[in-house]
UniProtKB/TrEMBL annotation:
It comes from Candidatus Segetimicrobium genomatis. PANTHER family: E3 UBIQUITIN-PROTEIN LIGASE NHLRC1-RELATED, PROTEIN LIN-41. The keyword Repeat applies. InterPro entries: 6-blade_b-propeller_TolB-like, NHL_repeat, TRIM-NHL_E3_ligases. Keywords: Repeat. CDD domains: NHL. This is 6-bladed beta-propeller. SUPFAM superfamilies: Calcium-dependent phosphotriesterase, NHL repeat.
Length: 431
């Protein structure tokens, strides 16, 4: 089985102040890509037509699909624009089990669904605004098991759920009330991270830029029933500063990346029972610098994107026991054998390790554009047969190889917007 998931959106990055802005670029890279790494640990890809390679070619405002790395079956969907079969900086991509594609067409303020890569069944919903069937910079799209579509409508301070692409069952939750009515249900300043349980409960990390609303919100459903906010702005118990990520483990405990407080927090429930925090600012054991993402695997081990320390941290529990770090990741994937593959972007190479102790360290790549060379590789994917795919960003190409020796090295791509061309390919996905 293959595992891959990508989380895109506002992600709860600190926005306010000169120092936060200075760090934002570094934080974005580590947080988003590590969220990808963490998610692959137990998010199955489902069943869909196998073998296709999908590329998010955002710089060319299009989606690309091919049958294999020879470029056979090359299909492009999208040109720059706002009409049918056009996109403007599409950020979110979701492929359902029937092979249909959902795209968050961010700068066109709409969500698009197509049946396949011919654009058949093109259906778009949205225009810029805050009314029904309107969005303001939608950044992420997710389809649940019942087919309902959730959209992070960031600029409108709300979450949108629809039953289908006709907009049936249009339901929104969230509005901007500022700090005056901060505890009123629905008041969201800057909703960022979101987690939806199988039972339907929704958890939101509201970073609340500029207001005393740095908190976590739980609600039972999209009516806002059971609205429960927890936390205020600060550094002590029951306080957060720009919480960027929220995750609910199988036991129902809530884990938060309390980003600007340089710590992670676990609570038993939304009353704050069992409050446990780990972390101070720094780069030693039990220290973080702007931790931006958190993930808990079924066995209970905790993974953290320690953004400004440019590392992944894994620990056995909230005491910090078994603390292990792995530095400077780009994106990563865990193969069916449990080996971890990492796009080590800044070092222009890919790395494979057997476990989080770094056992079996194997690296491939130097900076360049020849065989066994990369230039800022940004994404990696390993298919069930073991072949490795890499988005080689600054070389404007996709690379496939049989294994970590580089055998069977095949490249596809050159700079441009034509057939078999890319502009800074950022993500590679096999379905």
């Amino acid at each position: 089985m293959e595992y891959r998931s990508t989380f895109l959106g506002s992600n709860g990055f600190p926005k306010e102040g000169r120092d936060m802005a200075t760090d934002l670029g570094r934080l974005c890279r580590v947080s988003v890509l590590l969220a990808t790494f963490l998610a692959v640990l137990n998010v199955p890809a489902g069943t869909a037509p196998a073998g296709y390679v999908y590329v998010a070619d955002r710089g060319n405002n299009r989606i690309v699909r091919m049958n294999d790395m020879s470029g056979a079956g090359w299909i492009v969907l999208g040109t720059s624009g706002s009409g049918a079969k056009q996109f403007n900086f599409p950020r979110g991509l979701f492929v359902d089990t029937a092979g249909r594609l959902y795209v968050a067409d961010t700068e066109n303020h709409r969500v698009v669904r197509v049946n396949d890569m011919t654009g058949a069944g093109w259906t778009a919903i949205g225009s810029v605004g805050a009314g029904p069937q309107q969005f303001n910079k939608p950044r992420g799209v997710f389809v649940d098991g019942s087919g309902k579509i959730y959209v992070t409508d960031s600029g409108n301070h709300r979450i949108v759920r629809i039953d289908d692409m006709g907009g049936a069952g249009w339901t929104t939750f969230g509005t901007f009330l500022g700090g005056v009515s901060k505890d009123q249900p629905g008041n969201m300043i800057d909703p960022a991270g979101i987690f939806v349980e199988a039972a339907g409960r929704i958890y939101i990390a509201d970073i609340g830029s500029g207001y005393d609303l740095r908190r976590i919100i739980e609600m039972n459903d999209m009516t806002g029933a059971g609205w429960t906010p927890f936390g205020t702005w600060g550094k002590g118990v029951n306080r957060f500063d720009s919480p960027g990520s929220v995750f609910v483990d199988p036991a129902g405990k809530i884990h938060i990346a309390d980003t600007a407080n340089h710590r992670i927090v676990r609570i038993n429930d939304m009353n704050g029972a069992g409050w446990t925090a780990l972390g101070t600012q720094g780069s030693s054991v039990n220290q973080f610098s702007l931790p931006s993402s958190i993930f808990v695997e079924a066995a209970g081990r905790i993974y953290v994107a320690d953004a400004l320390n440019n590392r992944i941290v894994r620990m056995n529990d909230m005491t910090g026991s078994g603390w292990v770090t792995l530095g400077s990741p780009g994106s990563g994937v865990v193969d069916p054998a449990g080996k971890i593959h990492i796009a080590d972007t800044a070092n222009h190479r890919i790395v494979r390790i057997n476990d989080m102790n770094g056992a079996g360290w194997t690296a491939l790549g130097t900076q360049g554009s020849s065989v066994n060379q990369f230039s800022l590789p940004s994404s990696i994917f390993v298919e069930a047969a073991g072949r490795i795919y890499v988005a080689d960003a600054l070389n404007n190409r996709i690379v496939r190889m049989n294994d970590m020796t580089g055998s069977g090295w095949v490249t596809l791509g050159s700079p441009g917007s034509g057939v078999k061309q890319f502009s800074l390919p950022s993500t590679i996905f096999i379905r």
